[in-house]
Amino acid sequence: MSIKTILTCLTDVDTADSVLAAAALLARRHGGHVIGLRTLESLMVYPGIALHAPDIVFTEFGASQARQTDELKRIFDQHFHAENFVSEWRLLKSRSATAAERVVESAQSADIVLMPAADPEAETNAHTRLLEDVIRDAGRPVIVVPRDFAGDKLGQKILIGWNGTRESVRAVHDARTLLCAGDSAHILRISDHGENPGLDATSNDLAAAFARHQIDTTLVERFWEQPGVAAALNKEAFEQGADMIAVGAFGHSRAYDLVIGAATRELLRHANLPVLFSR
Hints:
Layout: E1 5-9, H1 13-30, E2 33-40, H2 55-80, E3 86-93, H3 100-107, E4 112-116, H4 126-137, E5 142-145, E6 157-162, H5 166-178, E7 184-191, H6 201-211, E8 216-223, H7 229-240, E9 244-248, H8 254-260, H9 263-269, E10 275-278
Helix pairs in contact: 1-2, 3-4
């Protein structure tokens, strides 16, 4: 089993090259069909707010989106015009103030979704909310690509974060679809110091299942320590020479994540490699 439909979300000009380069690596390897999705957002004025928005505001907002869309289409064509795989440009208009609903609709027919990482220095967290909404609601694995991604391999040597939850099970098997015979999977179980030491039988069964696909598989346990799970995954990925991290996402309720915070959100902010999030 491999991936064939690759939905690539183009949100801004600054990240287009990185996310398209990542999509091309997957499409070449798997003979995939790349969809370049550009979603036009609506400018919302909420009733009950004493604010008059002159027509020029809507006109300029629309013109700005049109200019950015034209530039994104140019970059998309520049990346893929000489490729052997099929590429498709898709322009959709959102019915709300965010693009999440249209991205989720398109993702339902995709094998995998690629999105650019958020800018940590951005004045708003709108893109982070978009990432979280798509990861939560799309029902498909989402690869978040660093803004400066320039790798020459993707999905051939994957570090998989494993803790036995439903979400991590999804991540394990979503990562498996990217791996081919001869590739490498490094399964990392992060444990609390209070837990019984030693890898459980399920972890060993998981490594054996990967090995049956002729995937070079290693399994290791690390104890959780500060500064956190994201740092541990990034450190292990660097030491193993991984080209991607795969993890389960948002294993708690929205209310819990809002109050306590989530390892998913930490990794969204501090990932050095493309990260596949599954839920």
